[in-house]
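Q: what sequence does this backbone want?
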């Protein structure tokens, strides 16, 4: 990635953290994905934004790309599982199980995933598919 793409990604992330609407950020992350098509983080973010913006079919495609680029990314797997729930795709359980294994062996990832899920539920409180995945990943909470 060039500095320009990295700075575009970083700026988009800062805008997201500042509370900007997903719909406004989708074009930013689409551009990052176009310019850096092998960036798992960019595809993962784009999938998340599509999910927040009620565009599960686009989210599904972006999440598939992210998982293909990095099968070891728990957030990419979670995004894919949520998108699969929302689009009625089959086979989502394997992605949830794999994400669960990843966050079990890496406490840092576990905390990141928890924060991400809470952020998603704060931004979209009635997000039933994310709540379902959260209950599968963290049944004890």
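A:
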């Amino acid at each position: 990635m060039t500095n320009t793409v990295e700075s575009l990604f970083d700026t988009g992330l800062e805008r997201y953290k500042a509370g900007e609407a997903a719909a406004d950020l989708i074009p930013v992350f689409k551009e990052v994905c176009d310019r850096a098509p092998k960036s798992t983080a960019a595809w993962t973010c784009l999938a998340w934004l599509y999910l927040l913006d009620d565009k599960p079919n686009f989210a599904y495609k972006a999440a598939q790309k992210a998982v293909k680029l990095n099968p070891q990314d728990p957030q990419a797997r979670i995004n894919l599982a949520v998108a699969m729930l929302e689009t009625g795709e089959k086979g989502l359980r394997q992605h949830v199980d794999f994400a669960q294994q990843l966050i079990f062996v890496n406490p840092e990832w576990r905390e990141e995933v928890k924060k991400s899920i809470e952020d998603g539920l704060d931004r979209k409180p009635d997000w039933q598919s994310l709540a379902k995945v959260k209950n599968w990943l963290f049944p004890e909470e």
